[in-house]
Structure formats: structure tokens, C-alpha cells
């Protein structure tokens, strides 16, 4: 089977029950990665047995184990250090790739080697509520390369979304962007991927090619619930964008209003600090207000009404025939996607 110049990095902490689905989906890809690096963060469940079982059967899998629990950011950065290929892909241990992800991505990347990454539509599945929606719909109706100016235009119209769980990214460009900056915690992937995208442009495949299972106990979800800590993370994003090495990206983020994604907490920071007010634009205000309203409505909207809205508003891609495995059941005893 053909392989791609791709290192897959799988950070894992106590996801022994989900690892077989994750690893098997990677091994089933029609275009295989050159290596699958599994970073176990000192799991206390059966993860090591699962990883060793797969590694014995598949030489492409390279297992590593942290001596103590270091957290997901440490794990993915360790994977970048170990990666031996031109491109990397990050596969959370409790999520799933769909058929064609690597083949479709590299078809475009070979045509557009200037691109910093290739992403596709991500299938979001909220386990506790049953909500299901797609992100990235509407960026294009055909496989394409989007240069930074086109990305700004898409973002201004609310159509840009780089889903990290679908993204095959150039390793050198990500390292240049700072890799996963630990101080940005649950937003470190957003920052790194958007810096790469706005510097080099992106390729896009208009298909759902990966599933993101949204858990109420995930690192991303629980982190944002700590309002003071989340505010500090958002402040660090703004401080980084004021630094000289990110001025090129800051200008495009400002023009596009991309910081709307962080809703009211981000707007409060921008309004409250003179240094940050360069990001205060009409497009940011418009997008931030509407996004904040949608987040509040989502909390009280019945599932059937939300599903109807997702379809009507274009948050669902046409069916392609690729279906994910059975979704995991809610768990509340483990910090998903993160450190223990």
C-alpha cells in the first residue's frame, strides 16, 4: 500500500476503550501515513495493552510513554519533536478519521505545495446532548486552494473554519508558528493552525472526513468553564498577536474579524484594554454579537429544533456515504483530551 510523507500523532490519556476505533480508522486509510506516533500520557487504564497490541501487528505504529502525566499540549509537542515526515496530522485518541482523509488531502497538497495545510469538513457530535453539526460547510463546493486573501473574505462572511481534527499540516510551518504554545492551553491548536493558514493559505476538501466527539468533560470544554483561566488564555492570544513575529497574521485576523469565535469574553478584553482595541472593527462587532446570541440560544434549544436549524442554516454537508463508528457513551470520570 502507498504511504504519504505524513506523521500521525495520537495523544492518549486513559482512552483505552476508544483507541481501537481511532487506530483502526487510521490503519484503514487508503493512503497510509509513514508513521503513527502514539504518545501515552502515563495512562492508568488498559491503554498500554491496546497500544502494544496494535504496535506488534503494525510496524507503522511507534509507541511512546511519558513517565508521568504531562498533559495533552506536552504530548502533541513531543510528537512534533519525534515526527520524521514533512506533514503531521493530530488524531485525538477518542475521535475518528473517515475514509479518504489522507488520500484526498494529499491530492490537493501535491497540486498546491505552497499551502500550509489541508483541511476538510468536520462532523461534530455532542455526546451528552445528541447535537450533530458540521463545521467548514460553505468554504467551497469543490476541492481547492484558498490563499490568505480569499480566507479573509470567507471569514468576513462567516464561512471560514479550519478544523484541526481534519487538518494535515506542514510540520515546518507549524514549528515556525510556535507549535502548540502551552500558555494558550485549549486554544493552542486554533492559534497554531490559523497562523499557518493565514501565512501560507490552505487547501480544502468539501467532505466530512473526520468525526469530533464533543464530551462535557473534555479538556477544551472544562477549561472554558473556568472563566478566570479562560480570560487569561484569551489575553495571552491578544498579547501574542501584538508581538512583531505575529504582526502579519494579526493584520489579517483584524481585517477578517476572526476573533469573534471567542464571543463575549474576547470582546470584553478588547474593549477594556487600549492596546487591544486595534482588533475592534465593525465586522468583529457584528460577528461577535451574532455568535454570542447563537451560543446562548443553543443552551435552551430542544434537540429537534437545533437539528432543524443546523440544516436550514447550512451547518450540514450533503451525505457522502462515509459513516463513523458507533459514538462513545457519555463518561464523567475522565478528563477527555487532556491531562489528569
Q: Can you walk me through this structure?
A:
The protein is α/β, with parallel strands linked by helices and 340 residues long. The protein has a domain at 1-95: Alpha-Beta Complex (Spore Coat Polysaccharide Biosynthesis Protein SpsA, Chain A), CATH 3.90.550. The chain has helices spanning 19-27, 47-57, 72-82, 101-111, 148-156, 171-176, 188-200, 219-225, 227-241, 247-256, 263-272, 282-300, 303-312, and strands spanning 3-12, 32-40, 61-65, 87-90, 96-97, 117-126, 132-135, 144-146, 168-170, 202-214. Strands 1, 2, 3, 4, 5, 6, 7, 8, 9 and 10 form a 10-stranded mixed beta sheet that branches. The radius of gyration is 19 Å and the shape is globular.
Summary keywords:
Spore Coat Polysaccharide Biosynthesis Protein SpsA, Chain A; 340 residues; globular; alpha/beta; 19% strand; disordered C terminus
How do you describe this structure in short?
The protein has 340 residues and is an alpha/beta fold. It has helices at 19-27, 47-57, 72-82, 101-111, 148-156, 171-176, 188-200, 219-225, 227-241, 247-256, 263-272, 282-300, 303-312; strands at 3-12, 32-40, 61-65, 87-90, 96-97, 117-126, 132-135, 144-146, 168-170, 202-214.
